[in-house]
Design goal:
Length: 334
Amino acid sequence: MKNLYIFFAICFCSFTSYAQEGKPSVVATASMWADMAKKIGGPHIDVKLVVPIGGDPHLYEPTPGDATMVADADLILRNGLTFEGWLNELIENSGTKAPSVLITKGVNAIESTSYKNAADPHAWMDASNGLIYIKNIRNALTTLIPEHQKSINERYQAYKQELIDTDNYIIERIKEIPEEQRILITSHDAFQYFGRKYGIRLEAILGTSTDAEVQTSDINRVNSIIKSSKLKAVFIESTINPKLLQQLAIENDISIGGKLFADSLGDEDSEAPTYIEMLRYNADTIVGALTGTSSEHMHNKQEGKSNVLMIILLAAILIGALIFLAVKLNPRHD
Ligand SMILES: [Zn+2]
């Protein structure tokens, strides 16, 4: 009997590995476009990710495993615009023959605030740029697997509509912030595209990349902006050490408006497990904190759930105590 189990286990394993092998391998440098590719390619592709969730793509150092992954790839999706400084070497070392597709092709790039003649890479932070990304990914996938063109196009159209709705949602939400307080202070300059699209002024302590040195003059500049515009909050980012921003918030007696996602999605249990959820969550967090309407900026989903459970538990105890008292105080006389 035991041998039979082993036999079935081996059959199952070889079947699943065959199924995996049968699908083209699409390697994405960062989690935002890994998600886009999954949404558009669906069951027809096997998506792999280089920089893990929560990692910082600006400072990433590829591993030997990455070289193998890239060597076995059928397609590589890259942001370009100086985002993945390590990618060319990784591709070269891996010896891969896979095409590497620039998914920002067609984006109206912003010049980097910290480097001369370099582009700001964070184009995905504007949902209408996201539409360019997904069109480029759709085109790359239909070239890779033309036999699934119809299914890929259907998935693409549905996803495109969701992204257009998200863009409109952000436009409407930002209008809730009084115009003079539409200022976003973050650790690094990842929100220039977001600001240009949705009408928010950006001030960051670091430049476009996360490896720039912090200057005292930058901190003084940000401090005086907070004071002069009576800002209610500053924001930390999921992939960057929050120390400096926390210090700024304490010095100015204002709150940390929440954690924003810029260079990576969050994990499955976070507020931003997908690209669209990341865009919506960022907008909600910014609007909530800058208008002072969000009282639980720092709470995540998990804490929210456990709060509800706690309230239900307390209510049950209270009702139980009341019934007990009622029975005790009204002894039957029959
Ligand atoms: Zn960045």
